[in-house]
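User: Design a sequence. Structure:
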């Protein structure tokens, strides 16, 4: 049996759930280019793997039982993954705005000057901090770094490693929605600590697994997410790496943890003991999943197949297909507001991504939101003055009649 990546113990590690085969590319791609790529690389049979999870009852932590082929996964992401740039397209990303608001309140307590963000994409957060007078540096392996550089942000276009910052220390280190993707959890944390001085703060944001488990929601699960954290997990992380938590926040689907180094091991955090409540959260999960899937299916069966439209073409949509078993297939009308996705496909299902076409939507009777941004999408539909039923899955399953 594997060991827990946090406490390094195996006695509390148990099988959680095996969802079966799940695709490496949980995002839309250029169909022709992707097909040529997999033929050239000879990876036709390596485009999916088992999404099999274990949980540590001591740490309230989930992990993939087997890490997928990271070389193939990274290569596919580097060549085909697209994400809308808030800087390039001039919009305010909801999740980033929430984090920034909380961060700026927190920073009032400190006299920090320089900031490093690990996995900064286009540097949206860094740009806002730069405007407020902070000296900013980013580290980002994707093409998002090239966008940030055009906005005069200092971004190193590479995977984060302490070797890139020999003898360089930062007042604030930010890592948002990156830690859950890193295979070697211990190395990334120790490398982050390397760039901290004795008064530095490390701010980490990740999905809050307790929220998803308590709600019986599935959209957080993918092969790209190797680790799934709770606040209790980070208590154990702090204890193991000689850190202390100075503040924690829930959004509730995400958690933000602020750490500082502690100089004496005698001052380590005392971990809260395992209790029955922790185990019940995990043990009830499968029941909640089936209840949610049943609830969704009952709503959808009220409508004919041609009456359905799906809004949202990101990783959530892949979870909807593979985990919630929503009836999305090659002839479904799947749309997204992001123009960079239009004309792309979810390769294995041959599903094309369409723009928002009002005349087509008016011919439908139910829009199923396959996105985290339920509120924004419902607001968009209202602005279009379309009378239609809307089914949202996140943050809870709910049917809304827009009149």
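Assistant: Done.
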């Amino acid at each position: 049996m594997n060991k827990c990546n946090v406490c390094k113990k195996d006695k509390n590690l148990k099988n959680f759930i095996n969802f079966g085969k799940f695709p490496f590319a949980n995002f839309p791609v250029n169909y022709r280019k992707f097909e040529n790529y997999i033929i050239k690389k000879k990876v036709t049979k390596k485009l999916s793997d088992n999404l099999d999870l274990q949980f540590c009852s001591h740490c309230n932590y989930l992990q993939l039982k087997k890490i997928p082929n990271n070389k193939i996964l990274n290569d596919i992401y580097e060549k085909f993954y697209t994400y809308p740039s808030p800087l390039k397209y001039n919009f305010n990303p909801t999740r980033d705005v929430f984090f920034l608001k909380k961060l700026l309140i927190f920073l009032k307590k400190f006299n920090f000057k320089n900031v490093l963000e690990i996995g900064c994409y286009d540097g949206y957060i860094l740009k806002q901090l730069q405007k407020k007078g902070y000296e900013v540096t980013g580290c980002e392996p994707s093409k998002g770094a090239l966008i940030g550089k055009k906005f005069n942000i200092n971004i190193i276009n590479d995977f984060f490693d302490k070797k890139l910052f020999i003898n360089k220390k930062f007042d604030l280190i930010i890592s948002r929605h990156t830690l859950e993707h890193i295979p070697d959890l211990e190395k990334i944390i120790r490398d982050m600590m390397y760039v901290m001085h004795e008064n530095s703060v490390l701010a980490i944001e990740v999905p809050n697994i307790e929220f998803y488990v308590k709600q019986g929601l599935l959209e957080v699960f993918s092969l790209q997410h190797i680790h799934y954290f709770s606040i209790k997990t980070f208590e154990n992380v702090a204890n193991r790496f000689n850190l202390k938590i100075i503040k924690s926040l829930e959004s509730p689907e995400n958690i933000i943890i602020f750490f500082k180094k502690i100089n004496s091991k005698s001052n380590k955090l005392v971990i809260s003991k395992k209790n029955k409540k922790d185990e019940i959260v995990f043990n009830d999960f499968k029941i909640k999943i089936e209840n949610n899937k049943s609830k969704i299916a009952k709503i959808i069966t009220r409508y004919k197949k041609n009456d359905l439209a799906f809004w949202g073409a990101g990783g959530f949509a892949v979870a909807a297909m593979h985990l919630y078993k929503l009836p999305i297939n090659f002839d479904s009308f799947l749309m997204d507001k992001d123009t960079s996705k239009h004309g792309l496909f979810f390769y294995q299902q041959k599903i094309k991504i369409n723009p928002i076409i009002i005349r087509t939507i008016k011919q439908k009777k139910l829009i199923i939101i396959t996105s985290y941004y339920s509120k924004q999408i419902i607001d968009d539909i209202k602005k279009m003055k379309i009378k239609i039923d809307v089914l949202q899955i996140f943050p809870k399953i709910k049917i809304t009649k827009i009149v």
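The longest strand covers residues 196-207. Confidence is low (pLDDT under 50) at residues 265-272.
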